[in-house]
Amino acid sequence: MKQVVAMLLTVLGMAVSAPMVAMAQSGPLRIEITEGVVEPLPYAVPDFVAESAGAQQLAQQIARVVAEDLTGTGLFREVPREAHISQITSFGSPVQFADWKAINAQALVTGAVSSDGNRVIVKFRVWDVFAGTELGQGMQFAGTPDGWRRMAHKVADQVYSRITGESGYFDSRVVFVSESGPKDQRVKRLAVMDYDGANVQFLTGSNALVLAPRFSDDGQRVLYTSYETGMPRVHVLEVGTVQSRILQGQDGVMSFAPRFAPNGQTVVYSLTQGSNTDIWAMDIGSGGVRQLTSAPSIETAPSYSPDGSQIVFESDRSGTQQLYVMSASGGEARRISFGQGRYSTPVWSPRGDMIAFTKQNAGRFHIGVMRTDGSEERLLTASFLDEGPTWAPNGRVIMFARETQGAQGSSSLYTVDISGRNLKRVRTPEGASDPSWGALQ
Amino acid sequence: MRLPAKLTMLMAVLAVSACTNANRFDNGAVDLNAATGSAGGIVPGSASDPSSPAYFQQTVGDRVLFAVDQSSLSPEARATLDGQVQWLLTNADYNAVIEGHADEQGTRAYNLALGARRANAVMEYLIAQGIPASRLRFVSYGKERPIEICSEEACYAKNRRAVTIISAGLSS
């Protein structure tokens, strides 16, 4: 939490051979993600140049994290360093494009790192090798030494965005449930980590069962469900101070499945009174509540549209779990899922165009996406138990939890592109579930 | 004469209920069995004492099972609950918390709500049979607290349950 990065975004005032035009609009170096990339774009990231004594290791580490980010998307393929002909020994020297063409690196990322022990400065440039021009402009980031991974992620976000024309998702965090112990005595703690599983920090102890944390859009607060009082109740936690309080503490009722509205002021959640579960909204400042659904069935897993005007949720009012959309103020709901099986845990994409969900059908679980009207349903995964999708900040990747079968079963986090490609496990120190992907920092 | 005896029993009851709470998710029955002893007579608070929570758990039957995604009570479940009603009517000093559970074949939030349905099906039945609502509370653990861990119907069937946990009703 302390690794604050002062982002200078300074355009480097260096003379470059080619004019600095906005290359992102045209030219050969462009990945159209919407077309579904089959052949990843080859690129090279030589070690960044150490411009001060002692910055050597950092310069190498930062270049490696940039490469892990880019290659991890499945959209890029790194040309291994052993194949490089040229070495980048000075950030300001002209690039020998022929050497990079010869190894078929279409994009080249060069960088430099300097550090005085308290402050690290990272500079980088992106090159279109075959056009022999710079892509966009040189940029630099400054920060503290312990924030070096964030600076690397910011560089990678820039490279990603210049080549794809879309915003990246590397400088982002995920709040999740860290799991340990056997299946019948599982211990669950809230934890937060970088999107790639680095820098895990625990937010709660192991004294009480906790479930389903959700980030606020600004990443400052986390809603979650805790059994600390014996009943499942919605809590809110300030990430900076790690202080939490009960949001819904009404006696004799359960509250769970909370999520912030985009305004960060309203919280929507499920409330169980007797055998009935409905969706409620609460103003987090005043504590004022409003009931949004009133059916004898189970209404849960609400998620706002990014403009805050609508809520998608699941209900078994038809007999099985299905997805519905209603106004953020409640009222009439429109069913949007009509395929085989059960649909649950809907989450509106940050772009507003799609809804991710869990689907159960014929004894298998799937993560899928559909348009917000329910059309163009597409299943991205299949396993014994996949559940709880959450969107990357750019709406191109989904993270979810996968539980393995049997007495030794355990849960891990995975990511998958919305194309269904590039399924990958996220490295976490323990078992992990219930991810919530925060916004780009 | 009677006062000390009752006091002793109360203390035993408190000890047992504390133990039950602490071991709610472990196999607390082992400890309770151990308390039976070999004296032959009825040991207050042990499973041989009909007014003990251990007796309720082991002899009356503390749990009922449900079909997949259902919360309706089967005839067997009703028979078990009738026994619970008799015990709770006889032992009016005790309260109960009904825990609802689901198997792992479902998403987390839905299973919490489903567990609440199951716990409330039991609670409503007990109330309808004359147990004061003020003595009963419910909580759902969804799929978070399985007692059987295999991923087969044999295990799932035991995990789809509502368990009546006896607690001392002296306070609150």
Automatic annotation (TrEMBL), chain A:
- Give start and end of each TolB N-terminal domain: 29-135
Q: Which residues form a coiled coil?
A: none
Q: Name one Pfam family in it.
A: TolB_N
Signal peptide residue numbers: 1-24
Biological process (GO) annotations held by this record are: cell division; protein import
**What are the protein's UniProt keywords?**
Cell cycle, Cell division, Periplasm, Signal
Q: Where in the cell is it found?
A: Periplasm
Q: Does the keyword Signal apply?
A: yes
- Answer whether the UniProt record assigns the keyword tRNA-binding to this protein: no
Domain of life, per lineage: Bacteria
Give a Gene Ontology cellular component term annotated to this protein: periplasmic space
| Entry function | Part of the Tol-Pal system, which plays a role in outer membrane invagination during cell division and is important for maintaining outer membrane integrity.
Query: What's the family?
Result: Belongs to the TolB family.
HAMAP family according to UniProt: TolB
What name appears for this protein in its UniProt entry? Tol-Pal system protein TolB
Whose protein is this, by species?
Marivita geojedonensis
State the encoding gene.
tolB
Automatic annotation (TrEMBL), chain B:
Record keywords: Cell cycle, Cell division, Cell outer membrane, Lipoprotein, Membrane, Palmitate, Signal
Q: What name appears for this protein in its UniProt entry?
A: Peptidoglycan-associated lipoprotein
User: What is the membrane topology listed in the Swiss-Prot or TrEMBL record?
Assistant: Lipid-anchor
What domain of life does the UniProt record list for this protein's source?
Bacteria
Q: Which GO terms describe its cellular component?
A: cell outer membrane
Matching entries from PANTHER family are given as: LIPOPROTEIN YIAD-RELATED, STATOR ELEMENT OF FLAGELLAR MOTOR COMPLEX
- UniProt-listed InterPro entries: Bact_OuterMem_StrucFunc, OMP_bac, OmpA-like, OMPA-like_CS, OmpA-like_sf, Pal, Pal_lipo_C
Q: Which GO terms describe its biological process?
A: cell division
**Oligomeric and partner information:** The Tol-Pal system is composed of five core proteins: the inner membrane proteins TolA, TolQ and TolR, the periplasmic protein TolB and the outer membrane protein Pal. They form a network linking the inner and outer membranes and the peptidoglycan layer.
Name the NCBIfam families for this protein.
Answer: Pal_lipo (TIGR02802)
Entry keyword annotation includes Cell cycle: yes
Pfam families, alphabetized = OmpA
Known function: Part of the Tol-Pal system, which plays a role in outer membrane invagination during cell division and is important for maintaining outer membrane integrity.
SUPFAM superfamilies noted in UniProt: OmpA-like
Leader sequence residues: 1-22
Question: What family is reported?
Answer: Belongs to the Pal lipoprotein family.
What are the OmpA-like domain coordinates in residue numbering? 53-170
Q: Report the locations given in the UniProt record.
A: Cell outer membrane
